[in-house]
Design a protein that fits this description.
By secondary structure, this protein is mostly beta strands. The protein has one domain. It has 1 helix and 2 strands; from the N terminus they run E-H-E. Strands 1-2 form a two-stranded antiparallel ribbon. The chain is elongated.
């Protein structure tokens, strides 16, 4: 292969808006209490889940 025949790739940065479904866990005595705690922001993420939608918001034109 001729030297310089390969194109040099550049890294471009972008802002992406991503929606995913996650599984969260919380310790509670009843389902109602669990719902209230989760709605208040308590608990922790059990699994990261799957990406449901990804949309390009902005492509920053200057490569790094």
């Amino acid at each position: 292969m001729v030297a310089g025949a390969l194109k040099k790739l550049k890294t471009f940065h972008a802002t992406m808006q991503v929606m995913r479904t996650e599984e969260w866990c919380v310790e509670a005595e009843t389902p109602e209490q669990a719902r209230a705690l989760l709605a208040a922001g308590s608990g922790h993420r059990c699994t990261a889940g799957e990406c449901m939608q990804a949309e390009l918001v902005t492509l920053h034109d200057q490569p790094s």
